[in-house]
Structures are given as C-alpha cells and as structure tokens.
Design goal:
This protein is an alpha/beta fold and 273 residues long. The protein has a domain of 183 residues: Rossmann fold (3-Layer(aba) Sandwich). The protein has 12 helices and 5 strands. A 5-stranded parallel beta sheet has the order 3-2-1-4-5, with helices on both faces. Helix 1 packs across helix 7 and helix 2 packs parallel to helix 3. The relative contact order is 0.14.
Amino acid sequence: MEKLSVDLEVLEEILVNFLREEATKVGFKKVVLGLSGGIDSALVAFLAAKAFGPENVLGIMMPYKTSSKESVEHAKLVVEKTGIKSKLIEITPMVDAYFQMNPEMNSLRKGNKMARERMSILFDHSAAENALVLGTSNKTELLLGYGTQFGDSASAINSIGDLYKTHVWELSRHMGVPNELIDKKPSADLWEGQTDEQELGYSYLMADEILYRFVEERKSIDEIVQEGYPLEIVEKIVRRTKIMQYKRVMPVIAKVFPRGIGTGFRYPRDWGV
C-alpha cells in the first residue's frame, strides 16, 4: 500500500540512532530482549546489534512446554545471523507451579501469566547485566491492545512501537532477517496452531490500512468504509483501538499537588546522566 511506504534506509538509521541515544543518555551500554522466534523480536535484535554491537546485546529464549520447536529454532537463526549473546530459559517449571495452584485458569489467563513471567525474567537479567530491556511490540499490536499489559508490552525503550506490522515486514527484509521468520504466519505461540490473524479475525494488512486511515489521517468510520473496507471490520478495529487505550498509558495517578507525575511533571530522558 502506497500510504504505508517508507524509506527503509532512513528508517533503519533513525531507529538505530534512537536505540543508541536513548540508552546511552541514561548511562546504559547494554540491552536485553526476549527472542520469541517471531518477526518483531528478530527485527529489534538486528537493530540492537547494529546500535550497540552484538557483544552488548543479550537475547533470551523463554519457551514453554507447549511452545513450537520452530520458535526456538527461528530464534537461534537470529542469534546466528546477528552474533548477539543468547540464553535459553525454560519457563515451564515456574509457571506450571502457579497453574497447579489455580487449576481453573483458562487459556487467556495462562497466556498472560506466561507473558508476565517472561518479562520478569528480562527485567531480572537487565539488573544482572546492567542493561535496558528493549520492547518488541509494533504499532499495530499496541493500537489493538494485542499484548499483555506489563507482559510483552512492557519495556524500557521500544524502537518499533511506531511501526505498523507492514513496516516490520518491509524493514526486516531490508535488514536481512531470515526469510523463515518473515514468511511464517505471526503467532503468539500460546497453543498449537494458534495465529494472530485467526485470533483477531482479520489480516494484519487490512488492520494496518484501516488503522493508518483512522490514526494517522484521522478519518471517520464512514470515510474509511467509503474507501471500500467492510463496515463490520472497521467498527471492530476502531472500537478495539479506543477500548485498549488503557494499555497504552501509564497508570492513572490521582492528582493532589500542582505538579503530578505525568503531564504535570514533563521531564523526558533528556536530563541525561
């Protein structure tokens, strides 16, 4: 789609510089990220290797017993291609202990628990390595709330959070991410055969086109539908984007004093160290 096209060389340079600058200005030279075997974390690993040098990037693979073997294999392809450091940590023993205590848990709760367990591991290693945790959620996922709050959506800095899934695919090809990861169907790998698009009920490409019109061009539902998109899907995507706003903001803090945390005390990382 022409509207979603970007200059990939410029985009790569912007994101690499972003990672380097945002980490170094607060005193960090190393980063850590979760390697799921998916395209998003793969792209972040490639960007991080270029920004910090592969020796300063730690990718952690955290499979569960039901995870696809392909996921770990694809994560290892990223490690081989980028040269970053890696570690494999099975989360099965730790989450199964909790699942056994709560046998009534459904697949949603289990998936959320696994996502938060993985992020807990990443932040623990960030302390051990004196490294920042890199986010791997793209803009499409963040807008649709397709992620676990304080799980895979958590991080210190996120280089791809303003890239639609379409951009992730394009930049991944540009940077040499293995085709095995680019060509496979996106999946959170929560259960056998699960795919993102099957769970969402529409393709990422359609979601990107609708979201771009709604978010970037500020078009109404009627205007988007007039361009040929199904009313039911447009309404579903717009409604979900609005409902999931709570996942995209910091916790709401009651304001008592003149300069509350957040909008009243707007000092960015630019303080530096």
